[in-house]
Amino acid sequence: MHVRLKGLNCTRSRLANGAIKTYWYAWKGGPRLRGEPGDPEFIASYNEAASHKIKLPSGSLLSLLVKFEGTTEFCSLAPRTKADYKRIIDGKVIPEFGDFPLAALTDKRARGVFKNWRDRLALNSLRQADYAWVVLARIFSVALDRGWIDSNPCEKGGRLYQGARVDSIWAPEQVETFLQAPPHLLAPLMLGLWTGQREGDLLNLVRFAYDGSHIRLVQSKSIRLGNTKRRGVSVSQ
């Protein structure tokens, strides 16, 4: 017999050993369920959660998050970016601020509350803490633009992570050593050296992208030229 449980929500996290773990919740922002889908323990856990469910007030941050996921700003995101947003929303924002009253966003202390949250996230990862802050700031920005809230307490929060890419840059002698590699390995290296394009964009190139004098490609991320954003790029031979 199949039982359909309404409102189930899941998130996925990468464990320390590299495995992907799926966590199930009774509903978005609800309690985590025990067991695996289909198990008697899972169904019992869901029924227990449903019996204690408390309806959140309409003026809570959770209601804002649900509305945000229906906006064009969210729906037009790339699938990977959308998944990253949902991971932050479901796994970090809702558990902490699901019942946070929207009326409190204009309180001058609200920014400090969110800053403290980012500080706690930073204990595990500075980059992830920065990204969580960016996602929440974006949600508030969209909500402010649409008139849903009166203040964005996460605007211009700065960055905690200050990474250096010096160790990722090859020295001339390293390039010279790699030039002894088989020819099929040299093409990606030379493309990267002479075009400056991202690894993912170069790996997605097809043969007809090169017409004998130019390489034409569409970048996965836009670049800014003056006041104009462009994605299409033409690289001379």
List keywords for this structure.
two-stranded antiparallel ribbon; single chain; 43% helix; alpha+beta; 237 residues; DNA polymerase, domain 1; 3 domains; 4 strands; 9 helices; 14% strand
How is this structure best described in words?
With 237 residues, the chain is an alpha+beta fold. The chain starts with 8 loop residues before the first strand and ends with a strand. The chain contains nine helices and four strands; from the N terminus they run ββαααααααααββ. It folds into three domains: 1-54, no CATH class; 56-163, Orthogonal Bundle (DNA polymerase, domain 1); 166-236, no CATH class. The model is unreliable at 224-228 (pLDDT under 50). Helix 4 (79-97) packs across helix 6 and helix 5 runs antiparallel to helix 6.
